[in-house]
Amino acid sequence: MDGKALAAKVDVATKNKVQKLADQGIVPGLVVILVGEDPASQIYVRNKERRAKKMGLNSVVRKLPDTISESELIEVIHEYNVNPKIHAILVQLPLPAQIDEFHITMAIAPEKDVDGFHPLNLGRLLVNKVAKTPVACTPQGIMTILNAYHISLSGKKVVIIGRSTIVGKPMAALLVNANATVTIAHSHTRHLSEVTREADILIVAVGIAHFIHAKDVKEGAVVVDVGMDRDADNKLVGDVDFESVKPKAAFLTPVPKGVGPMTITTLMAQTVSLAEWSSE
Length: 280
Ligand code: GUN
Fold this sequence. Notes:
With 280 residues, this protein is α/β, with parallel strands linked by helices. The protein has two domains: 25-111, 3-Layer(aba) Sandwich (Rossmann fold), CATH 3.40.50; 137-259, NAD(P)-binding Rossmann-like Domain (Rossmann fold), CATH 3.40.50.720. 41% of the residues lie in helices and 15% in strands. It is globular and about 50 Å long. The site of guanine has 8 residues, from strand 3 and helix 6. Residues 90-93, 115, 137-138, 166 line the site of guanine. Homodimer.
């Protein structure tokens, strides 16, 4: 499954919406807050900035020192909560140890929470009331991929490996809402390979290079690789051993050019949606 090509298609639709908003004098604004100098986060933030500018958004990157206190960071978030030029606020994770991610998530105005991590937005997702609700970008991007490849979800057995608030839990909620039968596996799951071999659709978000091999996958399964790992040669690879799984899977997302581009594309689309909803 080609995430890059699909992302380009979705971007065209998003750009058209940006144009329509421009006709009303609205430029969707996204602020990405980066605390500290984590090299991977710096790359992700640079990519988001580049894409946001390409889409014609008002793109702001706010860099803060890793010594910042939780209350100082919350002050900065409040500044953007009341800034009418900013429609979407993203605080890049992970954060330094002195800052509680949950407190930061709670500080973001729910109507500007482009990551969909605020408990109000997560709650709306759980009760399946997602109209005008931001949803975590990676799971939402995966839903767009599954949909684009006409992979039906109703009654399907889906196994997600990973229970994070960024991927696993919102992914499970989206899939249950789409009538799939969902299992969330994680580091405490016993006999993991037996569990994954049952999956019609296997979504892997563990963060370990080449964690899943052909023996862990059912013949004809759909496999979605959320990993962004480095192999021994520092090459970007996924959680799935692509070469061994490819002949067995009906569909498989590559790394790179799979889930990653769709995540950023969804972030852009959702920034535009937040700007549209705020103007209604
Ligand atoms: N770090 C890794 N993925 C994400 C994400 O989706 N959102 C944020 N804010 N930080 C991340």
